[in-house]
Amino acid sequence: MRWEKLTSREIGALDRSIPVILNIAAIEQHGPHLPLDTDARIGGHFLAELDARHSDQVLILPPVVVCTSEHHMDFPGTLTVQHATLLAYVTDILNAVAAHGFRNIILFNSHGGNQAIGQVILESFGARHRDCRVAMLTWWRIATDALLKVQEGGFGSVGHACEFETSLMMLIDEGTVRRDLVPGPSHVMTHDWANNDLLRGGRGALFRTMKEISGGSGVVGDPSLASAEKGHAITRIVVDALAEIVSSMK
Questions:
Q1: Which segments of the protein form a coiled coil according to its record (predicted)?
Q2: How much is the pLDDT for 118?
Q3: 3-249 domain in CATH 3.40.50.10310?
Q4: How many CB atoms lie within 10 A of CB 72?
């Protein structure tokens, strides 16, 4: 169910144990071949699939699409807000959800730059609402082992505007993918302890802008390996994992 599509009376009649999900995403550059709303479209796609399967078991909030993308600001079109702004805004939304009596709340993240502040939102809101259960899920982390089997390229082929994100956009809205501009691999490695990709974390964290990580291309990974068929496989894996987690929350 979609929160904004219901009436006030219909919201009031719902079981307050139903999990409520808020997607936090991004409007930012995605290389020469993908639109700025890629992260928002991907997050919305997964939640639409979840809703189609379990519409009476989840309540999906309107997404927050402009989030923290300061590290992409070297590229035209990127929109961003400060971490403190996102913390305050998302917390206010969750406060409203809790004020209406809902007690199972999930932040569903579809942008890498939201992970750190998302954890802060989780911990600060959770500490103040001990009667709620609040979780944060990032789509590529909830089923890593299964997604590794889908990845065709080696380490570094998935990151940003990459093999996975391009595959998903080919599935979601093929007409938005500029196929003649899909580049080959791009991933500027750094210290061994800091190297990572979408599915594999480093031993430590090193701040670099997207321009630095991508060598100026805006792409981290290998979008030339993308396909709509791979997008289908990713969708099935992620939505299966998401559905299992949502069910456990209720």
A1: none
A2: 98
A3: yes
A4: 25
Closest by CA position to 159, among listed 196, 134, 193, 121: 196
Q: How far apart are CA 137 and CA 234, in angstroms?
A: 16
Tell me the domain boundaries of the chain. 3-249
Query: 22: number of CA atoms within 13 Å, CB side?
Result: 26
- How many Å apart are CA 142 and CA 237, to the nearest integer? 9
Residue 227: predicted pLDDT: 98
pLDDT along the chain (250 residues), means of 10: 98 98 98 98 98 95 98 98 98 98 98 98 97 98 97 96 98 98 97 96 96 97 98 98 95
DSSP letters, 1-18, are -BGGGS-HHHHHTS-TTS
Q: How many CB atoms lie within 10 A of CB 141?
A: 15
Closest CA to 5 of 14, 67, 17: 14
Instruction: List the end-to-end C-alpha distance of the chain, in Å, as a whole number.
Output: 15
Report residue 105: phi and psi, to 5°: -125, 135
Return the structure tokens found at 7.
């009436």
109: phi then psi, degrees, rounded to nearest 5? -100, 135
- Provide the 3-class DSSP secondary structure of residue 203: coil
Report whether 231 contacts 206 (CB < 8 A): no
Residue 82, pLDDT score: 98
Task: Kindly report the number of other CB atoms within 10 A of residue 89's CB atom.
Answer: 16
Q: Which helix (H) or strand (E) holds 119?
A: helix 115-128
